[in-house]
Write a structure and sequence with these properties.
- This protein is mainly α and about 200 residues long.
- Helix content is about 75%, strand content about 0%.
- The protein is built from seven helices and no strands.
């Protein structure tokens, strides 16, 4: 999955290097932002980089650790919702596969019943004359049930990788939350006495 790979690759960058400054203040926040924009990655393709940039921008404007923590908590919910909604169409497709199989089975059984009617309604004769159309009817029933079986198998085969990918992206959002708490919020310094308390809240 290229999308997930890009997300993970973006986490390899040092977004907030200590070489710029140990604390992120109103005076140094612009230098951190400039550093991130200089990295070879598109912020819109990375939850982490987008979240950190938003946090820095909020801090530059609001100059308040608790306010930034609250905004990042809201962004975390938005990212989690985006991950869930991105799999909606795939989930609908996986849900529809067995339904299509059942529809095929119903159509097949309907055709087989019609075939039985034709066999039973024919003139009584020797068994050899009845055997061929009867075998055709039984073949139709076999295909009808095979349709449902294949649909269920395909649905199961698609469900496992889809669920695995979604869980991986949800874990990634959690990792971004933890990064922002440990590396962004804890280093924000708005000059107020309650900086540390405000930085540790919001995303927990």
């Amino acid at each position: 999955n290229q999308k997930l790979s890009r997300q993970k690759n973006s986490m390899l960058f040092d977004l907030l290097p200590n070489e710029i400054a140990d604390d992120i203040t109103v005076k140094t926040v612009g230098r951190f932002t400039k550093h991130i924009h200089g990295l070879p990655v598109n912020p819109s393709q990375s939850f982490l980089i987008n979240r950190v940039l938003r946090g820095l921008e909020h801090f530059r404007v609001l100059k308040s650790n608790p306010e930034v923590a609250g905004r990042l908590a809201s962004q975390s919910e938005i990212d989690a919702t985006a991950v869930e909604s991105s799999y909606t169409l795939l989930k609908v497709f996986i849900w529809a596969i067995p339904i299509l199989g059942f529809i095929g089975t119903v159509i097949g059984i309907g055709g087989a019943i019609g075939g039985f009617g034709a066999v039973l309604g024919g003139e009584a004769g020797d068994m050899d004359a009845i055997k061929e159309p009867l075998m055709h009817v039984l073949d139709q029933l076999g295909v009808a049930f095979d349709t449902t079986l294949l649909a269920l198998v395909f649905s199961i085969l698609l469900s496992f990788p889809a669920s695995s990918l979604q869980n991986a992206e949800e874990d990634l959002v959690t990792t971004v939350d933890e990064y922002c708490i440990d590396n962004l919020l804890r280093r924000l310094n708005d000059g107020g006495a309650g900086s540390s308390a405000g930085s540790d809240s919001g995303l927990l």
